[in-house]
Amino acid sequence: MGVAAATSRKMAKPVVPRNEALRRVKVAETGIIGQDLSSQFEIFGEMVKLVTGADFSMVNILDGKNQFTVGGCGIPVDPLMAMPQDISICQYALASPEPFIIADLSEDERFAGIMMTKPPMNVSAYAGFPLNTTEGVVLGTLCAFHKRPIRLNPEQVRMMRQLAKATTDQILLRTQKANLYASEIGALLGRFVRFAPDGTISELIGFLDFCAHGAALPEVIIALEKDGIITQIDGNWMLTQDGVDLKAELGLAEDGYRGAQVNVPSVGSQLEDLLEKME
Predict the structure, then answer these.
(1) Which of 105, 106, 176, 193 is the most exposed place for a label (fewest CB within 10 A)?
(2) Burial bucket for residue 148 (CB in 10 Å: 0-12, 13-18, 19+)
(3) CA-CA distance, 204 to 218, in Å (whole number)?
(4) 183 — pLDDT class (breaks 50, 70, 90)
């Protein structure tokens, strides 16, 4: 890979999208960069291979400086590893909502001799389908790479457009869901501080854990006890009357609390499940 990079010709700069500033904002809002969500996007990569016969495929998100491969098939994927955007073929697919397809990279002066055409990638053909949002921005691409020149037929192009839309919908659905939970958590925290004026988001999550599973981190248990929300009776931590009232105020399901010892590990990572149990 190092030899290829050292001997590869520098790629010409593509046209910058007219709405590049907005595009970068929308990419940041997805919250995908910095997370390993490859299992959620692997199926799209597999479908790309089935539809186009590609040797490997990727779901790429481009933030203006770097490209992140959040999913793929036929090639190892590290969603946390950034590749400079200026050496990516996908950067050319950002300026238009239409597919960017190069049937033979060796015949295109922009790409002949670039790093991806050399070992170990050996790419000869590329088909990038933009991940278009309703605002008219392109978050990245669903793309197919072939190790030999190839031309996609109209039916393959149609199906790839549909796959790109489905990929975009998956990304936007995650964003909408995250925003919804953020709004719900903000509302919950507002109610929580009425009972615990100095309460923090960590204490709120700990209280939700406690109500659902009777467990929370030891430091959270101490804080909740100081707030008068829980108390220890016969070695078990239980809700006080204020705790019961707070639980009702938050609209937690009645069957959530089971009671447990303090040394049970916290399950704050299951906050999404807890929110879904609310009335």
Answers:
(1) 176
(2) exposed
(3) 14
(4) low
Contact between residue 93 and residue 100 where contact means Cβ atoms under 8 Å apart: yes
- pTM (two decimals): 0.66
Residue owning tokens 């990727």: 58
Burial 34-65 (b: 16+ CB within 10 A, else e): eeebbebbbebbebbbebbebbbbbbbbbbbe
CB contact at 8 A, 122 and 94: no
- Closest CA relative to residue 230, chosen from 200, 255, 260: 260
Q: What stretches of the chain adopt beta strand conformation (E)?
A: 56-62, 66-73, 82-84, 100-102, 125-132, 138-146, 230-233, 236-239
Q: How confident is the model at residue 181 (pLDDT cuts 50, 70, 90)?
A: low
What Å distances lie between residue 52 and 47, 59, 117, 120, 128, CA to CA?
8, 15, 19, 21, 12
Conformation bin of residue 123: beta by default, left when phi > 0, alpha when psi is -120 to 50? beta
The whole-angstrom separation of Cα 157 and Cα 239 is 59
pLDDT tens-digit profile of 134-169? Answer: 999 999 999 999 999 999 999 999 999 999 999 999
Number of residues that make up the chain: 279
| Sequence-distant (≥ 6) Cβ neighbours of residue 37 within 8 angstroms | 70, 71, 79, 174
On whether the CB atoms of residues 129 and 164 are closer than 8 A, the answer is yes
Burial class (CB in 10 A: 0-12, 13-18, 19+), 228: middle
Q: What is the pLDDT of residues 71-116, one digit of tens each?
A: 999 999 999 999 999 999 999 999 999 999 999 999 999 999 999 9
Which CA distances in Å does 265 have to 174, 201, 206?
A: 28, 18, 11
Token readout for 114 is 């670039």
